[in-house]
Amino acid sequence: MVSDFRRKKLLHMYKFLDKDGSGTIDKKDFQLAAESMTKQRGWKEGDALYKESLDMTDLVWNALQKAGDANNDGEVSADEWVTMWDTISKSAADREWLSQYCKFIFKMQDFNNDGFIDSDDYVAARSIAGTSKEDAVAAFQKLAQGKSKISLTDFQKLWDEYFLSEDPNAPGNFIAGKSSFD
Ligand SMILES: [Ca+2]
Ligand SMILES: [Ca+2]
Ligand SMILES: [Ca+2]
């Protein structure tokens, strides 16, 4: 059973992923996300990072569809999404794609490409998603827990907390830039 708090967290991320606002998540949303991301970062066709973004988008969508699209209609509905995370938290389901997804998001947020996410990286990354600088700085401080930068190992832990933890005080709740989901 997913708690009310965790359901709100999951649905917050769901809305964020529903790029065309259709109310469900499908391959097109992931393509739109990849397009806007590569545009923001200035990666063009032929660049290694451009190709990596598109490949990763394909990999993540295919894995997400396999894990979450229970009725196999090509979309992951909000109910399917929540059920999928409930299943993942309870079973030894295939988490390899999640860890690859996590690494990819980490890389996307590491703007200066030094292998860590610092406050400046995080503010820049969140501004693309519409988070104000003030909120992003505050969220970074919660995520980093006193450190000046977040390593991939730290990030992986925060990432798991966002999706899997029922604890309203878990630092990972701030991964989407805020911790209140009402
Ligand atoms: Ca959609
Ligand atoms: Ca479905
Ligand atoms: Ca960095």
What does this molecule look like?
The structure is a single chain. This protein has two domains: 3-7 and 20-90, Orthogonal Bundle (Recoverin, domain 1), CATH 1.10.238.10; 98-167, Recoverin, domain 1, CATH 1.10.238. Helix content is 62%, strand content 4%. The chain has eight helices and four strands; from the N terminus they run αβααβααβααβα. The protein has helices at residues 4-17, 27-41, 48-68, 78-90, 96-109, 119-128, 133-144, 152-164, and strands at residues 25-26, 75-76, 117-118, 149-150. Helix 2 packs antiparallel against helix 3, helix 3 (48-68) packs antiparallel against helix 5 and helix 5 (96-109) crosses helix 8. The longest helix has 21 residues, at 48-68. The protein starts with a helix and ends in an 18-residue tail after the last helix. The mean pLDDT is 92. Bound molecules: calcium ion (CA) (3 copies). One calcium ion is lined by residues 110, 112, 114, 116-118, 121.
Q: Which features would summarize this protein structure in a list?
A:
two-stranded antiparallel sheet, EF_Hand_1_Ca_BS, 182 residues, binds calcium ion, Recoverin, domain 1, 4 strands, globular, 4% strand, mainly alpha, calcium ion binding, two-stranded antiparallel ribbon, 62% helix, calcium, 2 domains, EF-hand-dom_pair
